Amino acid sequence: MRKITLSFIFFMFFVLSLFAQEYEIENYTKTFTDSDRRNRRVTAKIYYPNQQTSVNENYPVIVFGHGFVMNYSAYENFFDTLVSKGYIVAFVTTEGSVFANHRAYAEDLAFMVNQVKTEAMDSNSPIYNLVGDTNALLGHSMGGGAAIVAASMVEVNTLVTFAPAKLRFNTTTPATQVTEEAIVFSGSADGVTKPSENHIPLYESLGSNCKYFISITGGAHCYYAMPNGYCDFGERFSSRDITVTRSEQQEIMFTYVIPWLDYKLKNDSSSYDEFVNTLNNASEVTYDNYCSNELDIEIEKLPKSSFRVKVGPNPTKSSINISSSDEYEIEKVEVYNQFGKLFLNSKGKRVVDLSSLHRGIYLIKVYSKGKTITKKVVVE
């Protein structure tokens, strides 16, 4: 079977989306008061589906954190894409100066998660009775680090960050207290918040039961957003080897963000299958994931055709057992180290002996009927 490219998958997703409901976008700005922080004033620009086209509907809420000295106009791509697909996005506009208080901004994001729910109960509010039961924290750069800290303070359904930055205080400790399923997006060419110093340590620190690290090959720091003078100026002198355009990076990003949010916030289990299949077949990204509960999802919630694999025990000192969905036969198993070197190649076996390998982390690639799933295994 020919490998399905990410561009083809995105094209098909776009075509199908034409048949889905699209919403007109409205917005308003409001300043809220946090009485628990000496009446701190927190301003947000709230984007929502037009009520004339969304009567008697409720929408998940996304609270979004901006990057360093970046304002709302830089993130119009997020508002236009997500709100048109039935989400409310609250963009927190505080701490936009070069003297930004990172801790205060994280607290502002956490405050806004609950404040939007309160706002939806006000009969004079444009979003009166429009807010659903699910919500998420999203953030870019400084806002990504702040979103991680905020997720340790308040309950949300998921956390998604884009090139998250370590803040001016300990950010990894709050990350360990985050339990929500999460995605950390990274760009391999990001020189502003270097992956090895920011994205990867924050991802590894997350206490999430299920988390994904998606690295866009040749991806930049600022390309998640629209052109922005401050961000682009900084990247011009720090990032090297950028090999994608801004539009390409955003296309790749939304290919994963949209099905993930539909899965987590709209309870659409088929979107998770779309997310995983796209990830497994993509050539534009590399990824890592840790999902201790990944295989505990009820079978009836998954499409009957989905290819699922379980590998254990993990960690192991000798061999691993591989099980798959009943209708899928395992054709081949390959074992790689973290640098992509092939160590073992086993055809048709469900028990693979790893006793000859040195201690470390290995990637197990399982092939079946043109599908591939990669699992991470620790050899002790």
Automatic annotation (TrEMBL):
Residues 44-228 form the PET hydrolase/cutinase-like domain. The keyword Signal applies. The keyword Signal applies. It comes from the Bacteria. InterPro entries: AB_hydrolase_fold, PET_hydrolase/cutinase-like, Secre_tail. This is Secreted protein (Por secretion system target). Keywords: Signal. PANTHER family: CARBOXYLESTERASE TYPE B DOMAIN-CONTAINING PROTEIN, CHLOROPHYLLASE-2, CHLOROPLASTIC. It comes from Tenacibaculum platacis. It holds the Pfam family Por_Secre_tail. The lineage of its organism: Bacteria, Pseudomonadati, Bacteroidota, Flavobacteriia, Flavobacteriales. Residues 1-20 form the signal peptide. Residues 313-379 form the Secretion system C-terminal sorting domain.
